[in-house]
Amino acid sequence: MTGTLFAELPRPQATDSLPLPNTDATMLDMDRVARHIEQAGKLQRYGGPDDPLTYLLNTKCLVEIDGQRYATLAGLLCFGRDPQVLMPHAVVDLGHYRGVEQTSFEVAHLEKNIGGTLFDQVTRIESYLWLNIHHGMTIAQGSFKRVDLHEYPQIVIRELCANMLAHRDYYHASARCRVMLFKDRIEWVSPGGLPPGLTIDNILNEQAARNPVVLQVYYEAGYVEAFGQGLDTVVAVLKAENMPPPIFQDTGQSFIVTVYGRPADPFTSDGAILQLNESQRKILALVRQKGDVASKEVYDHCSSRPRRSLQRDIAGLVDAGLIQVSGNTRAARYRPGSGEEESA
């Protein structure tokens, strides 16, 4: 039986806790369930029975009717041995484009039919996105401390991957989830549009989970930060990092979330020094140019600046990892920091 299950069933209000015909407990991986229970316990997000079968029944990943046990949609999606046997459409297409349009000549990578459980899918998508976005550093204002900087916050990527999979309409058998990485943004496309009662205007204030069991399992596993607050978390994190807010779009057939990344400047070779003062820029340029500079050369190069101010400037560059120092104060020598040497 392949590809026909959802075409034959009426669409219920809540989908993921209902029994699926022609299924049983053997279709669920008990070892995977046991690992989930152990991990959820360590995260202090689950404190119930540790027997896999009891867990499945309690969470409605497995239901019993007239002595017969049936797997539910949530059970197959989260713990199924091969979910795509019954749900070939429960997959994700991943597209990576060099430019800002979804055109064939801009394709950098295309991966169709990413399957497995929802955990397998979110791990694969998150891993690809994280490896293919920009990562760099900047300087914290006032302290000159080196601060890691990412084109997109990792928590935003994970939350939106999990949100896409947990909220999609799995009775929408003609469509699949899509994730598209462009030069300037990432788009997450979830089939089925918003659940009844939710609109773009009230999405952050109301809750109407299409697949509440899946969401609960994701929460227990640590894949979402707070049950029912995924999009709120995304909005808050982007705001805290001074990034543009997400754009929500409901076409009726799909729910689309778009997040624009940080501009490219902070990830170029000069982006790391945008917050340095003029003296520090001159010192860094000298060290980069010569590769090894004595302290006297630095003081001569910036002779118009007071010596004590120069010492603070140099200390800030060292703290930020932009330059390295060796030797004592009078015989000190300066070289590019480890990251600077690699990019030089």
Structure commentary:
The protein has twelve helices and 13 strands. It is of the alpha+beta class and 344 residues long. The chain has three domains: 5-81, no CATH class; 92-266, Heat Shock Protein 90; 276-343, Orthogonal Bundle (Arc Repressor Mutant, subunit A). It has a six-stranded mixed beta sheet, covered by helices on one side. It is elongated and about 90 Å long. The chain starts with a helix and ends with a helix.
User: Tally of extended strands?
Assistant: 13
Summed over residues and divided by their number, the pLDDT gives a mean of: 86
Question: What gyration radius follows from the Cα positions, in whole Å?
Answer: 26 Å
Q: What's the CATH architecture name of the largest domain?
A: 2-Layer Sandwich
Distance between the first and last residues' Cα: 59 Å
Class based on secondary structure composition and strand pairing:
alpha+beta
How many helices does DSSP assign? 12
Record keyword descriptors for this entry.
6-stranded mixed sheet, alpha+beta, Arc Repressor Mutant, subunit A, 3-stranded antiparallel sheet, 344 residues, Heat Shock Protein 90, 19% strand, 13 strands
